[in-house]
Design goal:
By secondary structure, the chain is α+β, with helices and mostly antiparallel strands. Helix content is 24%, strand content 33%. The two termini are 32 Å apart. The radius of gyration is 23 Å and the shape is globular.
Length: 442
């Protein structure tokens, strides 16, 4: 399989990967050999109707422990929809007590938050409708049995003590927790679109507790880098511009004007640089829609935007060379250089198409800013540490797990690795190198 064929096949996950990728929870899967299929029930309705008993306990600043007992004679898939809150009645009322927590989804990895489900249905996104409980993330509980697991969470009461295992919550929908429409929409959207846990926490403290971006950068409770705070600010802008128009923040509004590309050339490459600059407009790069710019200055953009500058330096039959630079619009309004690299394609500039060039750019940026380092080798699988040096959270990483000279793509989705953060993934392969990454703008 060629490298470009690998790029086109990136959306096909490796068989058996999910068993290694998600947390070790009894999460319902369309491929599970379950007979009969478990009955899907909404967690709050099932608790109200006596189908389940539910306990939610504190587990530090970014986790809530849930215990679910099935009171019926059939297997249940207990669905936990976006927008759930583990509520401390005392902290909700504003006097003492401990934090209330906004909840993520049971399929999240450590460090991520939400379902990573686009709210738009354009071509190229891998998405399924979430209206039916049968396709929503859920936890399977055996008949008459019980399960317990940890859910990612964000604190909703800045300055109030962190919950401990001795603290018991009451689970509720965010609509019943607060009358603030803006806060309701923020939590439900974060739990749907997906991001890193730190970005979600920054949004929560801003929307629920009124912290400014400067205060978020300087607060002593949770370490946040300026990329994470900039992403939170970007989401909050999209939230405020969409109030009253929809139930969720539209992912397109978050991603509008996020990634700019400028292709430059001189002499023999000038004509092809202009052509590629025009053809790349609207092409997806790093999962975001590229917007090309032709002038020499930096584009007008909000913080947490990327600029890819490519200078074609020479071409000959079967090869084109270029200098590649990546810049980010920082939270203070300046453009900061992230790195410079040499890019080599396997085509003459006159034969190079925009789609093939996007493949080469994707691969070069991915390998330059995201690494997979060996952490632990087992008999049938290997654990790698993924490091993200891009200024946005990684939603998807495609690894090449084939031996030398061969390709075997493994797609890791819903990662939520924040900027300048790392996480560990276990894959059914002995080796792996980064092939491609996808950002969802958060």
């Amino acid at each position: 399989m060629s490298q470009r064929s690998l790029f086109r096949a990136w959306a096909r996950p490796a068989t058996g990967l999910l068993a290694c990728f998600f947390l070790a929870l009894p999460v319902a899967s369309a491929s599970a050999d379950d007979d009969p299929a478990p009955t899907a029930v909404h967690v709050l309705r099932a608790q109200r109707d006596g189908q389940i008993d539910l306990k939610a306990r504190g587990n530090g600043p970014d986790r809530v422990k849930l215990e679910i007992r099935n009171n019926t004679a059939q297997r249940l898939k207990v669905v936990l929809p976006p927008g759930l809150v583990a509520s401390s009645v005392t902290s909700q009322a504003g006097g003492g007590g401990f934090q209330s927590m906004g909840l993520g989804t049971p399929t999240n990895r450590a460090g991520s938050f939400g379902q990573f489900q686009p709210t738009t249905r354009e071509e190229g996104f891998r998405s399924v409708p979430l209206a039916s409980p049968d396709v929503q993330p859920g936890v399977v509980v055996p008949a008459g049995g019980s399960v317990d697991f940890l859910l990612p969470s964000v604190c909703l009461n800045y300055g109030i003590p962190t919950p401990t295992p001795h603290d018991i919550f009451r689970l509720m929908d965010v609509d019943d927790f607060t009358a603030d429409v803006r806060a309701r929409k923020a939590l439900r959207s974060l739990a749907t679109l997906g991001t890193s846990q730190t970005v979600a926490q920054a949004v929560a403290w801003s929307v629920f507790n009124g912290l400014t971006l400067d205060q978020l950068l300087n607060q002593p409770v949770a370490q946040m880098n300026f990329h994470e705070v900039a992403l939170a600010g970007r989401f909050i802008d999209a939230l405020d511009h969409s109030l009253g128009r929809s139930d969720l923040v539209d992912l397109d509004s978050v991603n509008e004007g996020r990634l700019f590309v400028r292709i430059l050339g001189e002499g023999a490459t000038e004509k092809d640089a202009r052509r590629l600059n025009e053809e790349l407009d609207g092409v997806r790069l790093l999962g975001l829609k590229a917007q090309t710019v032709s002038d020499s200055g930096n584009p007008v953009a909000a913080p947490a935007s990327l600029l890819v500058v490519v200078q074609l330096t020479g071409t000959q039959p079967g090869q084109t060379k270029a200098k590649l630079a990546l810049r980010v619009k920082a939270i203070d309004g300046s453009w900061r250089q992230l790195g410079q690299f040499i890019l080599t394609t396997d085509s003459y500039a006159g034969d190079l198409s925009a789609s093939d060039f996007a493949v080469d750019l994707d691969r070069k940026i991915a390998r330059s800013f995201v690494s997979a380092k060996l952490a632990l080798r087992g008999n049938t699988s290997t654990t790698f540490k993924l490091e993200n040096r891009l200024p946005m959270s990684l939603a998807t990483v495609v690894l090449n797990a084939g031996p030398e000279g061969r390709t075997a793509p493994i797609t890791l989705e819903g990662l939520g690795i924040g900027p300048m953060r790392t996480t560990q993934v276990t894959v059914p392969a002995m080796r792996a190198t980064v092939e491609r990454v996808e950002l969802n703008g958060l």
